[in-house]
Specification:
The N and C termini lie close together (10 Å). Strand 9, helix 7 and strand 10 form a beta-alpha-beta unit. It is built from 7 helices and 10 strands. By secondary structure, the chain is α/β, with parallel strands linked by helices. The protein has a single domain, classed as Phosphatidylinositol (PI) phosphodiesterase (TIM Barrel). It is globular, with a radius of gyration of 16 Å. An 8-stranded parallel β-barrel has the order 1-2-5-6-7-8-9-10, surrounded by 5 helices.
Length: 205
């Protein structure tokens, strides 16, 4: 099971910043998740919400974030929020020299289909929403697209749901884990990974 620092370490630094990723790495993270948005000028940046016309303060460039992951040997999980401009983002990933340590996350079948065409063999996860359990239909669709698995909201993650996904040959990650007790609880379900905000994690997981 892999623990992934959700937006870095938002308890100790502003999320989706280099400082947040540094804090997570210093507290034991070997992987970080970041949210990606495309600016009107076409550049990709690390930001969760839709970009306002005037962004308060500097925003981290995606290329800089991925270069940081390469320098610090951190696995990069990229939650692509904008369903446009995939080709330009793919060029950045290919040129990063960190493509073999990069996993893509996206929501919605059209976006997932486009990414699978661009990257036929890259790890690719379907992020389901707050109200979206991983249904048998979604599992069939994921298999057809040759996805790696799902990132499911914690409300829907149980031992039974994990086993159902595993039987299909897919992986299941849970988001977002914010307490040590939940880290231990979800570890018992057999999930393959957790988007965690608990750094450092308890040793007993």
């Amino acid at each position: 099971m892999i623990l992934i620092a959700h937006r870095g370490d938002p308890r100790h630094a502003l999320e989706n910043t280099l400082h947040s990723f540094r804090q997570a790495a210093a507290r034991g993270a070997g992987a970080v998740e970041m949210d990606l948005r495309r600016r009107p000028d076409g550049d990709w940046v690390v930001f969760h919400d839709p970009l306002p016309k005037v962004v308060p303060g500097p925003v981290l460039e995606f290329s800089e974030a991925l270069a940081f992951c390469r320098r610090r040997q951190l696995e990069a999980y990229l939650d692509v929020k904008d369903p446009r401009g995939e080709a330009s983002l793919a060029r950045l990933i290919r040129s990063s020299r960190w493509m073999d340590h990069t996993t893509l996350l996206a929501g919605g079948l059209p976006t997932l289909r486009r990414w699978r065409r661009i990257f036929p063999r890259q790890p690719l996860f379907w992020v389901t929403g707050f109200r979206e359990p991983v249904t048998p239909r979604k599992i069939v669709q994921a298999r057809r697209l040759r996805l790696t698995g799902f990132v499911s909201y914690r409300r829907w993650v149980t031992r039974a749901s994990v086993e159902r996904v595993h039987r299909a040959g897919l992986q299941l990650f849970v988001w977002t884990v914010r307490t040590a007790a939940d880290l231990k609880r979800f570890a018992r379900t057999g999930v393959d990974g957790m988007m965690s905000e608990v750094w450092p994690p308890p040793r007993s997981i």
